[in-house]
Design brief:
This protein is mainly beta and 331 residues long. It has a single domain, classed as Outer membrane phospholipase (ompla), Chain C (Beta Barrel), CATH 2.40.230. 10% of the residues lie in helices and 58% in strands. The chain contains four helices and 16 strands. The protein is flat, with a radius of gyration of 24 Å. 20% of the residues are buried.
Length: 331
């Protein structure tokens, strides 16, 4: 079975490599051209940019009768893109890094508590080659998603992480066809797709967290066969991206969606993610943003830590809403 997944991965990657080659035939005159390509000859096909948002908040109280706890909060988001377009070839890449935390000091017990308010690493790459009709392209798409720091259960008071960097790490790789009239709108239909679920935290892998195969234990609970750190599934994938630069004065909206459905297994995997971002520019350097994200996977159950044991419950819809008033730097 592993050989089958490896063969499928090699097939999709080889297709990606073949599509990346320049389709134009070389002529004898090309042999006389210099081998070194000047930067201005290549960079003109690229559009590179992004933005960085930073939000900082601090509260400090001394003999303040209405009450309150000293706290510090920091949130930051970095979004970058690098898009290539030349004749019948387009290559679109974007990277989003987000992290935030809140630190609170209890004025009575002096106990310090630190919690995350945001944590995201997400990379998306689409390689497109013009197909048979206007605005239609052959597409190879790559999506990778994980986080920076350990996360803990919201329902339990435990110092055992329920997530961390590369636990989980989701990688989606698909090939198919896409409709894209411009760089602001893209719909991809990929009947051949691979989903890789990586869980590098062995404790989580042994519990079968995030859909990997759990450990085999004896009657006393001792581990005989460790849990798997990797799960590979074959299926189909749909992606959607749309950017409206100005739905109202100084207000933009960006949305992206993807859906993966596996073809095999007693219980087919359905994994979906939707994200919408409203961005309002108040001043040249000051913006307000609202980020709404839904995520659901029918093989990813809610994780609890009870008596230092990781327990997996039924799957639930995951929701994140982040509103920020930002100092924004655009480049």
């Amino acid at each position: 079975m592993n050989k089958l997944w490896l063969s499928l991965l090699i097939l999709i990657l080889s297709t990606y490599w073949a599509m990346a080659q320049d389709p134009q035939d070389k002529t004898l005159s090309d042999l006389n051209k210099p081998l070194i390509i000047l930067p201005e000859d290549t960079m003109r096909y690229w559009k590179v940019g992004g933005f960085y948002n930073l939000q900082f908040n601090q509260n400090f109280f001394v003999n303040w009768l209405p009450g309150g706890n000293n706290s510090t909060a920091l949130n930051s988001i970095l979004f970058t893109y690098a898009n290539y377009a030349k004749k019948n070839i387009q290559w679109r890449n974007n990277l989003k890094l987000a992290y935030g935390f809140s630190r609170t000091v209890d004025n009575i017990t002096k106990e310090v508590s630190v919690s995350k308010t945001d944590d995201q690493i997400e990379f998306h790459s689409d390689f497109l080659v013009k197909a048979f009709e206007k605005h239609w392209y052959w597409i190879v798409s790559l999506i990778a998603k994980t986080q920076f720091a350990p996360g803990f259960s919201q329902d339990d008071d435990s110092d055992i992480p329920t997530s961390r960097f590369a636990a989980p790490l989701y990688i989606y790789l698909g090939a198919g066809i896409a409709y894209s009239p411009d760089q602001f709108f893209n719909v991809g239909l990929m009947p051949a797709a691979l989903k890789f679920t990586v869980v590098l935290d062995q404790r989580l892998a042994d519990a079968g967290a995030y859909g990997v195969l759990n450990a085999v234990r004896d009657e006393r609970g001792n581990i005989i066969v460790p849990g798997k750190n990797l799960r590979v599934q074959f299926g189909g994938m749909v992606t959607f991206y749309y950017l409206i630069e100005e739905i109202a004065e100084n207000l933009s909206f960006q949305t992206n969606f993807w859906l993966f459905v596996s073809y095999f297994g007693t219980t087919r995997n359905v994994s979906t993610n939707w994200q919408g971002i409203f961005n309002l520019r108040l001043r040249k350097w000051l913006t307000a943003s609202l980020n709404i994200q839904f995520f659901y996977d029918n093989q990813v159950g809610n994780i609890r830590v009870i008596d230092d044991l990781i327990q997996i419950e039924r799957p639930r819809m995951q929701l994140k809403v982040v509103f920020t008033l930002n100092l924004q730097i655009t480049f």
